[in-house]
Amino acid sequence: MQFGFNAPTAGPLAATDQLVRLVVEAEAMGFDYATFSDHVVIPTDIEAKYPYSSTGEFPAGARAERHEQLIEMAFIAAKTKRLRLVSSVMVVPHRPAVLTAKMLSTIDVLSGGRLTLGIGAGWMKEEFQAIQAPDFAERGKVTDEYLAAFIELWTKPKPRFAGQHVRFDNIVLEPKPVQKPYPPIWVGGESGPALRRTAKLGDAWYPIGTNPANPLDSLKRFKTQVARLRKMVEQEGRKPDAVGLTLRVTGYGEGIPAKAGDGERRLFAGKPAEIAADIRALRDAGVGCLDIGFAGNSVDAMLAEMQRFRRDVMALV
Description:
The chain is α/β, with parallel strands linked by helices. It has 9 helices and 11 strands. It has one domain (2-316): Luciferase-like domain (TIM Barrel, Alpha-Beta Barrel).
C-alpha cells in the first residue's frame, strides 16, 4: 500500500519555503505521493453546499490566499525526485480541454512520469460562474467529454474530436505523457454519477469518507460501495478488478467518534493499533493508496505528526 499526504495549496504553509521544506522532507521520510487541491477563485458569497461537512459550510481556512493547482504541481515536481503528484481533485470543467491536456502532459514529461490525475466534476456553482466555466448544470457531461478529449490528445498521433463542448482537428499535441497510455486517472466522488464515471474510464476510485450523502465511515459501508462499483465496472465490459481503490482520510485518532453512522466501528478512530488494523482491513479489501490529512499549524508540527504516524501506525501495517 502507498501512503500520501496533503501538500498545502492555501494558507501560511503554502508559502514557498514552507511548502518546499514540507514536501522534500516528506519525500525523504518515505511518503509515496503528495496531493494538491483545486480552486481558482473563492467567491465571497457561497450558497452551494460543501459536500464533505455535515453543515455544508466551506471550511473557513480554505478561503485563504491560494496557488493555482497545476502550476504548484509543476513547481513541486522540480523540487522532488521520487514523490508522485496527485491532483486532489482537479475540477475538470474549470480549464479548457485542449489547454489542460497540454499542461498535464507537460507536467508528466517534466516530472519523469510522476503525475496522477485525480478528477472531479466540481460542486461550487459560484466559482464556475466567476471563471466563466461551462454551465454548472452540465458539469457532469462536460467532465466526461473533456476526459475523452484528453485521452484522444494523449494517445493519437492525429487527434480528432467533435463533441458538444470541445472540438478539434488538424492539430498535433506533443510530447505525449511519459506514462502509457496516459497518467492514471483517479475519479473522485461518492455519488452514482461518480461511480459510473469511475466504472467507465477510471483507473481508480478516489472517494472521501466524510460525505454525509454517501458516507464511507465504516468498513461495511466502504465494502458495500465497492461491490456496487465492481458491478458497474463489469457492466462497462471491463474486468471487475480493473479499477483500483484509493481513499482520502481527513481525520484520524482518538478525537473522532468511535462509532460510524451505521453503528459499526468508525474507520480511523481510536488508538494507533486500531487504526493500523483498519488500514490492513482496507488493504485486504483492495485499497492500494491512502492519503492522510495531517494536522499542524506549522511545518514542524505537520512533519512531527507525519513522523508519529509512520512510527506508530504504518509500522504496524
